[in-house]
Amino acid sequence: MSRTRPINCIIPPYILDKLLESPDNDVRQAALDTLLTTARLRGERMVRASLAGATATAGDGRRTIFDCDEGVTLRRATLVRTEDGPESADTAVDRAFDGLGLTRDFYREVFRRNSIDDNGMRLDGYVHFDVQYNNAFWDGRQMIFGDGDGKEFGNLTGSLDVIAHELTHGVTESTAGLEYHNQSGALNESMSDVFGSLVKQWSLKQRAEDADWKIGAEVWTPGIGGDALRSLKEPGQAYDNPQFGRDPQPDRMSKFMHLPDTPRGDSGGVHFNSGIPNKAFYLAAVGIGGFAWEGAGHVWYDALRASTADASFQDFADTTFQKAGELFGAGSPEQSAVLAAWAGVEIQISGVPKARAFAVSGNGRVGREDGIAALSRQLGELNAKVTALAKDLATMKATR
């Protein structure tokens, strides 16, 4: 069944719910206002999506930034920067402008994609949305940034991977159209985390093993260093503090969270269970090594384009394995790395014998042995030990 595309927000509802429990009245009020505004916007999106012809405007990926001046009506926002205009005196304006541009350029240079929809879609950004709005979101046509409450969140334009995360929801919507609930919804969220992280790595020219693999570290809890909204490298360990508790994301299927497909249930746990495919991507990226966008990034992008709207984790894992074979060759180290990555989160690729054994070396690269070779090696080692023991016994007898 077709489902209406949602407002895609970077801050998951379970974090805003935690803020409602804060002893700080200002923090509680900011969280409540954010939840109420997001609910209203979701309703407006559903109405707009039902109208015929509500499509994005083509414009060769040109950027335009507007200032909402703490208002919530986009049509009243003031134009403050264009593609050909000068820099602004407002840091938020320039960060939004640069973030949109870096994301656009990443998709163009790495995947030859013409803007978010591959048809030259204009990139419109709105900054200073609402008062102390603790979120940033993609609504299907434009990017909106809140300023944060200054305590638990900084200005949401301050994180490149947050901007790229949100814009990638547009890429997903115009490719696989992954339905935003249950496993397909968790894949939707994971795609945004994956490519959000890749845009940051690409901009810094970081190798997979050197990246921090964190999402939103620059804007999340300004007073606490080292934490982030999510971690692809270590789902479940992005943060741990008295205010929010511990990051609840699972990192493998045995920890999968079965939640109701309702707003209060995070649409079946889309922001929770995205940790599982996130971890698989991280394992594939470090298994292949080098620049992640050149190896695992291409595999995941091709798999996204080949997926259906209701794809499950198993479906997507199988597709990445297939695409890795097409891109790098069947049985290649890259395909083996993808196979090992999904095994690392307890997902077995369909049609691959379970007897095939995988070992990950200390530097993260993947080596492969089939079951017979592994058994032969183990028998050889055992035989060597038996032979050595026999020699020891013979020596002991000779010395008596």
TrEMBL record:
SUPFAM superfamilies assigned to the protein according to its UniProt record, in alphabetical order: Metalloproteases ('zincins'), catalytic domain
Protein name (Swiss-Prot/TrEMBL): Neutral metalloproteinase
Domain Peptidase M4 C-terminal residues, every copy: 176-347
Keyword Zinc found: yes
Cell membrane as UniProt keyword: no
Family: Belongs to the peptidase M4 family.
Stored InterPro entries: Metalloprotease_M4, Peptidase_M4, Peptidase_M4/M1_CTD_sf, Peptidase_M4_C_domain, Peptidase_M4_domain
Location of the Peptidase M4 domain: 87-173
Function of the molecule: Extracellular zinc metalloprotease.
Compartmental location: Secreted
Domain of life per record: Bacteria
One of the Pfam families matching this protein, by short name: Peptidase_M4
Native source species: Streptomyces racemochromogenes
PANTHER family in UniProt: NEUTRAL METALLOPROTEINASE, PTHR43579
E.C. numbers: 3.4.24.-
Requisite cofactors: Zn(2+)
Entry keywords, A to Z: Hydrolase, Metal-binding, Metalloprotease, Protease, Secreted, Zinc
Main location as per UniProt: secreted
